[in-house]
Amino acid sequence: MRISSVGYSMRQGVKNIRRNLLFSLASVGTIVACLFVFGLFYIVLVNFRSAIHKIESSISVSVFFEPGLSEEGINLIGEQIKTRKEVNTIDYISADRAWQEFSEQTYDDPEAARAAFGDDNPLAQSSSYKITLSDAGKQADFIQFLESIDGVRKVSSSAYTADSISAINAFVGYASFGIIFILLLVSIFLINNTITIGITVRREEIKIMKLIGATNGFVRAPFIIEGILIGLLGSIIPLVLLYYLYDIVINYIAGRFTILNSLFDFAAPMELFKLLIPITLAIGIGIGFFGSLITTRKHLKV
Hints:
Layout: H1 3-19, H2 21-58, E1 60-65, H3 71-82, E2 87-93, H4 95-106, H5 110-117, E3 128-133, H6 139-147, E4 152-156, H7 159-201, H8 203-211, H9 216-256, H10 258-263, H11 269-299
Antiparallel strand pairs: 1-3, 1-4, 2-3
Helix pairs in contact: 1-9, 2-7, 2-9, 2-11, 4-5, 7-9, 7-11, 9-11
């Protein structure tokens, strides 16, 4: 397409928006609402997954060894565990360390308790590996692997907590997808109506253009540009709103609810939006482009 044709299409696209201002604003408003909700879900999801990851890192699986297992055998078990991709951290806890930690958590005077037992360690057979996983949903398979290793006496885990985290993760993912999908369909429907009205208003003009040899692409271009402009505007507005709202909210929480700061590691605005911005712009422009393309193919049979 020549530069003059591109300029003509741009001007006509802007004129179409002005002619159908009410429907154009309705389309922009719907896209804004759709992408604002999408952005909210994205922000919540990113921070939620960060919190879940923090919880997952605290859920551990403990591996206890057969009595009398040599240090070489314990090291061999550790090497086998490290080969698994789902392993996040692995920490060896000796019997002496286990007794020290237990006494500090249990007794008011841990030093006196240890002195009372002297060299007799009541947890002499409790040396273990403490393991955290990168994905709590893989805990069941991982436990089966641990139980199959020679020299492993017992595997202790928090299966209920891991299953609960996996279920919450799945629910949030499906709910987010369903809501966003519905809003996208509504946005495309409104753009469809806006473009259809623009075609109806210019039907006679389009007939004349077709009679004097205008191609389908030349006729469609202004309507596609109209859809792209609507989608672009509808994606910029929620990004600006979300950026300032998120910044205000996390600063407010940091100042008023210090306990939440210890529980959640909120993503920094720039880190969060460096991915959200291109995704939102792509969705907004994509809605406008495909919505107008589908509509023009359907109605431009003159």
